[in-house]
Every structure is written in structure tokens, then in C-alpha cells.
Design brief:
three-stranded antiparallel β-sheet, five-stranded antiparallel β-sheet, 2 domains, single chain, alpha+beta, 12 strands, 11 helices, Transferase(Phosphotransferase), domain 1, Phosphorylase Kinase, domain 1
Length: 335
């Protein structure tokens, strides 16, 4: 892909700031297309490892073209700063959705999981291990389409690893045991993170909690996750069993690959289930539609401005009268 120039884009507002880069909403001048621009921070532009990671991320994204992965539109360097353009997902992240509206229903989580598995399988087929799968890196459109993004610490198995041997990389709440111990990772490391994500979407928090990295790492390595059946009522047994399998400490005890996980989720979405409020079964299409519809409603609500407190006309009149009284009192005192 040809190198891009920063002046090909008209920058809009900042929509996110990370440890090494700033994300802007932007418009490609020639086409009028809305994009997101990730620009390396000046303070990080002299760090050789940060530059190597940023360039590796661009190369990885160029390899991946999939409807459930944020699309890459090319990048380059401007005044010494690296940047690249990518698809702008207008909805928000799943982290924002959960923070805003709480835990999701299991049909929503199945709908999300099917799409994430599709993105992971595509990545793994191209030798890419994400290594940082979490709700904050999963973006959802107004049409309930989920997009996997932020490949900043992804491992390209076809290239040399730029991470120092034995160094721990990832987000603590979602890291697989083998990531924590610095062992060789595989696609099954992403599956462990997927188990953490599905658990959090259903419960509202990750399976393991801790005030510091030592407590979290101890739980990832040696503690069984909480029994999700006790935390989420009416959860299909196959879904809770799948999450437990994904969270296995030993990678060999996890599902074979993302496609295997997706198969279980697809079967779950196609199984007629009895609706507690009805005497009839819920059709498979109804289960899928319910998940898509409810997720779309959450994303739409996320974009709505938070209404301010309502003030009645009587309150406004009382405030106006008080102001007048204070003014008159001040004038009388001045005499």
C-alpha cells in the first residue's frame, strides 16, 4: 500500500489518547470519507521500540481485511511522526456499552461472540495473535456489527517478536497464564482472553479482581474463576460450560480454535428455547434478532447526550424573584 501524507486528511476532534498515540476523527479530503487517524505522540517518536511497534501494527493491519476487524487505510510519516488511517466506528467500545448500561443479556453476548470469533480466526489464519483482546478494543457500530481493533502489541508469528524475551505484555485482567509467565503464545491465548471478555459482558466485571498485578496474576495462574451460573440467572448450560473451557489454565484444555468456539455459539443461537414469559418456544431467528436489536439499542443510547436536571417554571420564577429581592436590597443598602 502506498505511503500516505497527513495533509490528505482534515483533522477533527480528538477521540482518544493512549500511552503512545492520539486518535482523531478525520476526513479524507479527496473522497470525503470519515476515518480515524492514529498519530504517534511526539514524546514517543524518539523511542525505537515504540516506533517498531507502531510500524509493526501498520504491517499487521495491512494483512487483515475482514468485516469484523477495523479496516486499515494506509499510513506514513509527517514531520517525524508516524500515523495511519483506519475505519471510524461510530458506535463505541463494548467497555463503554457495559459501563453505560450494565451487563448484557446472553443473546447479545452470543451475537458478539460469534463476530469476535470470526475476527480472531481470520487473524490466526494469517499468523496474527492479538494478545490484547478486551472490551475496550472491541468496537460496535449502530448496526450491532462488532469490530476488533488496536493491534499495537499483536504478535506476527511469521516475523520476529520485537518484545523482549520473557517480558509480560497485555492487559492484566485479560491475560492468559502463558502470557503472564512469558511463555510462547498461540491463538489459544486469545481464546483465554475471549473467555474473560464473555464473562465480563455477562456479569459486568472480569472473572478475576485484584488491587495490584500480583493478586491478578496469582488468580489467573492458580484460581478457578467464579461460577458464572451463580452470577447470571437462566444462562444456557452450554454457554457457561464454554466460558469455563475458555478459561482453562492449560492451553491444551481450551477449545481447538476460534472457529470451534464460534460453532458452539452459532448452535446456541439456533436452539429454540423456552421463554419464561410465554408458553411457546423462542425461534432461533428470534434469539439472534433479540441480541442484535438489544445491542443496537444500547449503542444508540450511548450516543445520546446525558439530559440535564429538569427545572420547572415555578423554580425559575422563584429564582428570578430572589434575584430581584437581592438587587433591591443591595440598592437600599447603597443609599
Amino acid at each position: 500500500m502506498a505511503k500516505r501524507q497527513l495533509d490528505e486528511f482534515q483533522l477533527g476532534e480528538s477521540i482518544g489518547v493512549g500511552t503512545v498515540g492520539t486518535l482523531y476523527a478525520a476526513t479524507e479530503t479527496a473522497s470525503g470519507q470519515n476515518v480515524a487517524l492514529k498519530i504517534l505522540l511526539p514524546i514517543a517518536s524518539n523511542d525505537s521500540l515504540v516506533i517498531a511497534r507502531f510500524e509493526r501494527e501498520m504491517l499487521i493491519l495491512e494483512k487483515l481485511t475482514h468485516p469484523n476487524i477495523v479496516r486499515y487505510y494506509g499510513g506514513g510519516r509527517s514531520d517525524g511522526q508516524l500515523f495511519y488511517a483506519m475505519e471510524l466506528v461510530q458506535g463505541g467500545s463494548l467497555k463503554e456499552v457495559v459501563q453505560s448500561s450494565g451487563p448484557l443479556t446472553w443473546p447479545e453476548v452470543v451475537t458478539i461472540g460469534i463476530q469476535v470469533c470470526s475476527a480472531l480466526q481470520h487473524s490466526h489464519n494469517h499468523g496474527i495473535i492479538h494478545r490484547d483482546l478486551k472490551p475496550g478494543n472491541l468496537f460496535v457500530s449502530h448496526e450491532s456489527q462488532v469490530k476488533l481493533g488496536d493491534f499495537g502489541i499483536a504478535r506476527d508469528m511469521d516475523e520476529g517478536d520485537i518484545t523482549v524475551a520473557g517480558l509480560t505484555v497485555g492487559t492484566r485482567s485479560y491475560m492468559s497464564p502463558e502470557q503472564i509467565t512469558g511463555e510462547v503464545v498461540s491463538g489459544k491465548s486469545d481464546l483465554y482472553s475471549l473467555g474473560c471478555v464473555l464473562f465480563e459482558l455477562l456479569v459486568g466485571k472480569p472473572p478475576f479482581q485484584g488491587s495490584n498485578f500480583a493478586q491478578l496474576f496469582e488468580q489467573h495462574l492458580r484460581h478457578a474463576p467464579p461460577d458464572i451460573d451463580q452470577l447470571v440467572p437462566n444462562l444456557p448450560a452450554r454457554l457457561s460450560d464454554l466460558i469455563r473451557q475458555l478459561l482453562a489454565k492449560d492451553p491444551e484444555e481450551r477449545p481447538f480454535n476460534a472457529r470451534t468456539v464460534q460453532g458452539v455459539l452459532l448452535e446456541l443461537s439456533e436452539e429454540p428455547r423456552e421463554d419464561p414469559g410465554s408458553t411457546t418456544d423462542v425461534a432461533a431467528a428470534s434469539i439472534r434478532d433479540r441480541g442484535v436489536t438489544r445491542l443496537g439499542q444500547r449503542v444508540h443510547a450511548l450516543q445520546q447526550p446525558v439530559p440535564g436536571p429538569e427545572i420547572s417554571w415555578w423554580t425559575l420564577a422563584a429564582i428570578a424573584a430572589l434575584v430581584i429581592v437581592l438587587i433591591l436590597a443591595a440598592l437600599a443598602f447603597a443609599r
